[in-house]
Amino acid sequence: MKSSALELKQVSKTFTKDGQTVNAVQSVDLTVEQGELVTFLGPSGCGKTTTLRMVAGFELPTAGEITIQGKDMTNMPVNKRGIGFVFQNYALFPHMSVYGNVAYGLKARGERTRDIGEKVRSALKLVGLANTENRYPNQLSGGEQQRVALARVIVMEPNLLLMDEPLSNLDAKLRLHMRTEIRALQKKLGITCLYVTHDQSEALTMADRIVVMNKGRVEQVGTPFEIYSNPQSVFVADFIGQANIVELQIVLAEQETLTAQIPGGGTFKARALRPDHHVQGSELYRTGQSAALVIRPENILVQDPSSEDGTFPAHVRSSIYVGSHVEYELVLANGTAIKAMVPFSRGMHIYEQQEQVSLLFDATATAFLPL
Ligand SMILES: Nc1ncnc2c1ncn2[C@@H]1O[C@H](COP(=O)(O)OP(=O)(O)OP(=O)(O)O)[C@@H](O)[C@H]1O
Ligand SMILES: [Mg+2]
Prior knowledge:
alpha+beta, Rossmann fold, CATH 2.40.50.140, 6-stranded mixed β-sheet, 8 helices, binds adenosine-5'-triphosphate, binds magnesium ion
């Protein structure tokens, strides 16, 4: 069987500083296949950079194993790993031309001058900078400098490309442009890539799969669609996109579904998720206890008050017409605030502040999660 491009097995990193220990990364398991682009997403301090630094070899894990294409790399020196990195401060050599910057690694590796010329030119062509060889970094725009940094890494033909917030120094428009370019290039070359970003939309648009981290641990790994539409924890639901998280009391817990009490109303039935990171067999949901109902703003209908079972009585706190949609802030009978985005259609009634309404949650697009 072909080995995976990268495997992390129970990788942990503990830092000790001034007598204090920080569990920066805790028991991370991850398998990345050849040619995949995997983004790391999570709040500041959750261990994204530390994980990448261990893969690169700048930090040694406190525990666990890292293999690259089936070979144990856990304690291998940085320069023996065949890895390229582009970090936030990509720092080109200011006194060297574009050519010199891109050729640097190949020269250091002792390649023949003629080969170097060919490789540098083809790398610069790939990043769309064919005619800039003789310029210096201060004669390039931010985006062009970033592309030189990329060419400098690609030219080395790394097995694995690590990028830690590579676009965070660029303005919004250039970021959008560069993310598409990096993705296209990564696909074209079939390079396996780990990509750290703070930016959700960057993670969602670029990734084959997303790793969501929280406090040193992996909360969920999945395709952008899985992460958005099937979050396996309240943390992920809350962190990715906009989600309403409503605590409801369970009146009936079945294997696949829960029925819960609607504040000031009837009952609501929906799927119950049983995330794998919870110990199998332990009872996640019990009658009388609460569970979190997760629903995205676009999966809620706002209607005239009705006593129909399954609808949520609410009042309108605010409504804003934004052209294609009406954005509502609503309040349930127990005080929980809810956001809803209703597509606008001609002639539709827009409810106003203080009006009583009924909310209809699309049961196919919502699920219960353990609190
Ligand atoms: N060399 C170090 N010594 C001590 N603690 C460290 C060291 N490097 C990182 N840490 C701690 O480890 C934790 C994880 O840090 P890391 O840099 O991996 O986070 P991150 O997810 O990359 O955050 P950000 O999004 O802010 O870049 C943090 O609590 C950080 O303070
Ligand atoms: Mg970081």
